[in-house]
Write a structure and sequence with these properties.
It is built from 27 helices and 16 strands. The chain is an alpha/beta fold.
Length: about 775
């Protein structure tokens, strides 16, 4: 058993920590880089140069260093880096660490897989260590991530690098059921790695939870957190944080919006974009290709690609959760010869983390939404990134392809574009993305639409899933902002439905209305003024498709009519897609369209004219003459108020009702008394029958012993005994004497007949 450390040893360790902290602060202050400078432009220190305090009392420069050992870091942090086998710094680490160690705000932008995590984990540990932060000091740092998987990955890096420190850290993400346990411990944590939703939940619900002493705020994938999806949550969180703090923002595609920076209260931030001057915006070892694939051939091309790369680890991106589920379930039943997995935001947290771990370990194919496009670093290199659906913008494309070619490894990506989406290639090339266009080899294409149709017949639940996948894809295209690339009216929806195996194209009401409005606008711009009213009425009166939709079709239409968003997708706010759509609608309302006069009049008829005079009430007498409005209130004959007459009538009516109720109560009481009396007589007769049967059994045992021995093995069921008043006994006995019968001398049938006679005589 190890001996506990003595008080003298603890005192010496505390003194050594104090001396180390003083040394680090002096070192940082002496070599502080100039604000606005880029340490990458400085030459690294020569090999063999002394590190730390020099003989003349000065310190070695650390700006421009290439190794972690040359930075003013504590021994505990350096030991953690050495244990995790981190020795050399990447470009983003060389550029940001000299500034962040000085306590400055950072906006860091670098390519995917360039080591941004260590660029903010190290300053967090050093800031709290130099402040001698303890459990009693509360929350000192908050690291926010847009997705749960990325938050878990950051927490693992924090544990590996900071394992020699004594800080308490916690992972707060959604999808867990142990919220009560988190509430008990969250006040004792020093570092929180969390998602915005769960952090805001603790701020609102956990008693005594506060972040008034916060030292560092870190936003990983900051551009996504600052997006409209997290706007409400982030504003609520920032309002509860102190303004005097250090803020670190890192992402592959950074924002320069003044409004966003003002929301975070940044003070003279250092903007560091290490790859801004590079020739490409994506990793150099990434080979990128794109091909034109019609919408109805996308699944055929995906199936053919999978069959041709059975020995690769492939990450496939689709637009919606329903598409991911449909492709995963159908391809799984077709058995391509390689393990298949799916990952989307509608799954619970345990399944998501389990699938993420399995994909890291085994060679397989992962179908996913954009929940896996941000920050995830798979343990083993991803060979291919396949984008079946076009990303919404260039930033989404960069983050998707960034899951492969991490750090020093290579990778390949392929993008499927429809003929109407080819303009995306020009936008990618404008952002310095070296993507190469290739033509698809249709000879090796393996159609699967027939197999999917057979599966939908065999498994009816897949047919509903196919309809939902069809609807959600059209909805995702409809919600896109860039209408130059994404136009839902240009899609071949009938061919797309057939490619999913659907026997009929689901009816989509919003699509019909969109086509209808488009035709109306085209007609308004082309027809002459004289015939504009007639043509507009014809266009407005025309219909597209008739027929009564089925229940499933109505449900699908309701999804688009209500605009219900997917749950917990990327842990975005409930109105992520709706916010974008609202902005698009606001932009569209600025456009004025001249509509015909007939349409305007029709609109006005539906509105109430508030300036029209209010209607008046007219009263007539018996002869048909109109009366003044107040003439009815007074009695012209007596001069008395008619209200008093009404009160007298009301009181008289109440008196009559009371008399009627008294009579009814007497009748009800008599009937109730009679009913209870009949019930007592019936129960008394049952009790007497049971007693007579017992006496008869005793007599039979005395007469014949053989019968008694035969029935000795089974006991007679004990009859129920009812207890009534003595008066009832007298009445029953008297009634039996009047009938001239003795109950002990008659049979059971005769007793029942006697009871019926007694009951009938009582009613008569």
């Amino acid at each position: 058993m190890r001996r506990p450390k003595s008080k003298k040893f603890k005192l010496q360790s505390r003194l050594s920590e104090v001396k180390e902290i003083e040394l680090l602060e002096s070192w940082i202050a002496s070599g502080k880089p100039d604000s606005g400078s880029n340490p990458l432009s400085l030459p690294p220190p020569p090999k063999g140069a002394p590190i730390g305090r020099l003989p003349d009392g000065s310190f070695s420069p650390y700006a421009g260093s290439e190794k972690f050992s040359q930075l003013p870091l504590s021994k505990r942090t350096k030991d953690g880096l050495a244990d995790a086998k981190y020795s050399k710094m990447t470009d983003i680490q060389r550029a940001s660490l000299p500034h962040s160690l000085c306590g400055r705000d950072i906006l860091g932008a670098a390519k995917t897989g360039s080591g941004k995590t260590l660029a903010f984990v190290i300053p967090v540990l050093e800031k709290l260590y130099r402040a001698r932060w303890g459990p009693e000091d509360g929350v000192g740092c908050i690291i926010m991530s847009p997705t749960r998987e990325l938050a878990g990955q950051l927490f693992e890096v924090l544990k590996s690098v900071g394992k020699h420190h004594g800080f308490s850290a916690g992972l707060l993400i959604g999808g867990r059921k142990d919220v009560d346990a988190e509430k008990e411990r969250v006040n004792e944590l020093n570092i929180l790695v969390c998602t915005p939703g769960r952090l805001l939940q603790h701020m609102d619900e956990t008693p005594n939870f506060e972040c008034s002493q916060l030292q560092v705020l870190v936003l990983d994938e900051a551009d996504r957190i600052l997006d409209v999806g997290f706007k409400k949550e982030l504003n609520a969180i920032i309002s509860q944080l102190p303004k005097h703090r250090q803020t670190l923002l890192f992402s592959a595609t950074q924002t320069k919006s003044v409004q966003d920076l003002a929301r975070l209260s940044l003070k003279d931030p250092e903007y560091l974009s290490v790859h801004e001057e590079s020739a490409t915006a994506t990793p150099n070892r990434l080979e990128q290709t794109a091909m034109v694939v019609p919408l109805d051939q996308k699944l055929d091309m995906l199936w053919s690609f999978i069959k041709a790369h059975l020995n690769s680890r492939i990450l496939v991106f689709l637009s919606s959760c329903k598409q991911v589920r449909f492709v995963f379930e159908t391809f799984k039943k077709l058995r391509p010869g390689i393990p298949l997995k799916c990952l989307h935001g509608r799954m619970n947290q345990e399944r998501r983390m389990g699938i993420y771990a399995q994909f890291c370990e085994k060679r397989s194919i992962l179908f996913s939404t954009d929940v896996a496009s941000r920050g995830l670093d798979f343990n083993k290199a991803v060979d291919w990134v396949v984008q079946v659906d076009c990303p919404e913008d260039v930033a989404s494309y960069i983050h998707r392809v960034g899951r492969t070619a991490r750090y020093l490894s290579g990778g390949r990506s392929i993008l499927f574009l429809m003929p109407s989406e080819t303009k995306m290639l020009d936008k990618l090339q404008e952002k310095k993305i070296p993507i190469r266009f290739i033509k698809a080899n249709t000879k090796r294409l393996q159609p699967v639409s027939g197999l999917l149709a057979a599966l939908l017949v065999k498994y009816p639940n897949l047919q509903y899933l196919a309809q939902r996948a069809f609807i959600t894809y059209l909805r995702s295209i409809h919600k896109q902002r860039d209408k130059e690339i994404f136009e839902v009216t240009k899609l071949p929806i009938d061919e797309f439905a057939a490619s999913l195996g659907l026997p009929m194209t689901p009816k989509v009401r919003f699509l019909k209305q969109k086509v209808k409005d488009k035709k109306v606008l085209e007609g308004l711009t082309l027809v002459p003024e004289s015939n504009s009213d007639k043509n507009a009425s014809e266009l407005l009166g025309g219909t597209l498709a008739t027929g009564t939709p089925k229940k499933a079709e109505l449900e699908l239409d309701e999804v688009l009519a209500t605009g219900r968003p997917e749950k917990a997708e990327l842990e975005l706010g409930e109105g992520f897609l709706l916010e974008k759509d609202a902005q698009h609608v606001e932009e569209a309302t600025d456009i004025r369209v001249d509509v015909p006069a007939t349409r305007v009049l029709k609109k006005k008829k539906l509105k109430i004219n508030v300036h029209r005079p209010v209607g008046t009430r007219v009263v007539f007498d018996d002869e048909g003459n109109t009366l003044p409005p107040l003439a009815k209130l007074a009695d012209t004959k007596t001069g008395s108020d008619s209200v008093n007459l009404d009160k007298d009538k009301v009181s008289q009516r109440y008196a009559e009702l009371r008399e009627e109720m008294k009579v009814v109560d007497k009748v009800d009481k008599a009937l109730d008394r009679q009913r209870r009396k009949e019930k007592r007589i019936k129960e008394k007769m049952k009790w007497k029958r049971g007693r007579d049967e017992e006496e008869g059994d005793v007599e039979s045992e005395d007469i014949s012993g053989s019968d008694g021995e035969a029935t000795n093995g089974r006991r007679n069921k004990k009859a129920k005994v009812y207890f009534d008043s003595d008066s009832d006994d007298g009445e029953t006995k008297k009634a039996q004497d009047n009938a001239g019968l003795v109950t002990s001398a008659i049979t059971l049938a005769e007793q029942e007949e006697l009871a019926l006679k007694l009951l009938s005589s009582m009613h008569s």
